[in-house]
Amino acid sequence: MNRRDYLGLMGTAAALAAASPSNLAFGQQTRPADDGKPTTSTVEDRERRMKWWHEAKFGMFIHWGLYSTLGRHEWVMENEGIPVAEYEKLAPNFKPVPNAAKAWAQLAKRAGMKYMVMTTKHHEGFCNFDTRLTDYCAPKQGPGRDLVREYVDAARAEGLRVGFYYSLMDWHHPDGGRCKTDEAARRRFVDYIHGQVKELVTNYGKLDILWYDVAWPLDAKGWESVEMNTMVRKLQPDIIINNRSKIPEDFDTPEQRIEASQNRPWESCMTLNDSWGYHAADFNWKSPTTVIRNLITCARDGGNYLLNIGPKPDGTIPEESVRILSAVGDWMSKSGATIYQSDPCQPRRGNYLSFTRKGNTLYAHVHYWPGETVVIGNLLNKVQSAKFFATGQPVKFEQDDYRIRLTGLPKKAPDLVTTFALELDSEPKQDHEGKRAVKPREPAYKSV
Ligand code: GLC
Fold this sequence. Notes:
Strand content: 15-25%
Number of domains: 2
Shape: elongated
Oligomer: single chain
Bound molecules: alpha-D-glucopyranose
Number of strands: 14
CATH architecture of the largest domain: Alpha-Beta Barrel
Structural class: alpha/beta
């Protein structure tokens, strides 16, 4: 569609927003990423920038800041009503070991993750990076050095893509609350935020992801989000931006749940226990099997999985997180190829398994091992061959109109999650309802 047709379709207000000078500065005059909503990129450009991200599927989130020193969740300042002056005293006492991020990056790689996203500044307002805009930052406080620089170097050393989380909401900045009602305060605060975002996208080389969080208390206009993200894209033309600056940008961010977006890239972010920041008393850890199953669900529905660690105040990773992610990594080293670069997969339901696929190959991942026979109901395809994915060992199977039975299997599950690869004659499709409607009913007992 050419630009004139597109403007004609959009209606005046939306067209004006899309045609703002900042957009046109990019010379991008094709389809906008989200019809009618202000945006700073196009669908075509998004597809180019996001190819690696879609293939990667699995990333590590890292929440680390002054709250880690208290060990009672990253919202401790607000939820315990801690005054700013009292909270600030944590800053000189934040003394992490040098290069703690090396172990994060090594663990991410071991787990099969392909990218990392670290909190450069969380809601508390403390900056883990070097900034000229406040003294409330790691180099000028306890750490005495730029923790974001260490993280960037560590991620790159392991060949992982680099993402920055940045909280727009700020509980420390004097204008962070009153900016809603006081225009002079808003001006100062937005200059501060844009200034920091500019520092972040200028000072660390090529970045892969910008992950904004909580846009309270302003809207997109108040934050000047279009201008902010236009500036970001000018300095980082390949960067991927999430949807939390109150404009949709490149991807959606369902939190603590897996929910596919319609026709939009999405990434489900999740904690390993119930907190993002280090929480010493939170032992509600997910099992490796749960993590693997969640990753499979994301891949099946065309999304990514961003899984969090909350390092301790010294920067070391809680032992349970290491244990869980190492087990996930063992599985990924054998079966990761059923996740990376996989295509969205329509077959969804089984009581003890779930699916991913690549082309006509269906991967059946068994979470609860039923014993010597594994059965998949109501597939519409013909199975041509079946094997254990991890070992390549062939599996016997029988297929009729309603089910495929994989037979002669071991009594006990060979793996944490055992994966079968089924070669089908066409793209996998499952239709429970359709089959239910036509299934012959030959009851042994007659209805009365
Ligand atoms: C929420 C929380 C925050 C966490 C984030 C991760 O917005 O406020 O603590 O960083 O989710 O998605």
